Amino acid sequence: MPSQPSKSLETFDNPYPDRDYHIHMEIPEFTCLCPKTGQPDFATLFLDYIPDHKCVELKSLKLYIWSYRNEGAFHEAVTNRILDDLVTATQPRFMRLTAKFYVRGGIFTNVVAEYHRPGWQPRPLVELTAFPPQSNMRG
């Protein structure tokens, strides 16, 4: 049986719950419908989070994202709804969802929604020297 869209988000146990680490996902095929015109809206979603005890399972995330394909939603509402559902499923330390919608009527729309677990503070960032491209080449 082929996969079907689903609002169910599955999780799995974080293999390193004692460590803050950053998970970054790019979801380039998000589609929903404009609630005013019924025309499709397309976006790339960028999900960044620091898990606590649970991580989101990728196939369920794909089917969840697919479930919006035939739903009407304003960009602001759908971005926040997706973030709320992901936070409910995973209870992360931190999560940010950035939705970059493609042009509609000459306007690009970007919506950024964040969740911070109360009391959680990120550790200080350690800045490392960036290596220029091809830095290991001699000659």
Blueprint (SSEs and pairs):
Blueprint: E1 11-13, E2 23-33, E3 40-50, E4 54-56, H1 58-66, H2 75-90, E5 94-104, E6 107-116
Antiparallel strand pairs: 1-4, 2-3, 3-5, 5-6
Helix fraction, binned, reads: 10-25%
For the record, the CATH class is: Alpha Beta
Structural class label: alpha+beta
Cα radius of gyration in angstroms: 18 Å
Into how many domains do the coordinates divide? Answer: 1
Compute the separation of the termini in Å.
Answer: 56 Å
Question: What's this entry about, in short?
Answer:
Catalyzes the NADPH-dependent reduction of 7-cyano-7-deazaguanine (preQ0) to 7-aminomethyl-7-deazaguanine (preQ1). Pathway: tRNA modification; tRNA-queuosine biosynthesis. The chain has 139 residues and is an alpha+beta fold.
Report on this model:
Helices cover 18% and strands 35% of the residues. The chain is α+β, with helices and mostly antiparallel strands and 139 residues long. The strands form 2 sheets. A 4-stranded antiparallel β-sheet has the order 2-3-5-6, with helices on one face. Strands 1-4 form a two-stranded antiparallel sheet. The model has no long low-confidence stretch (mean pLDDT 92).
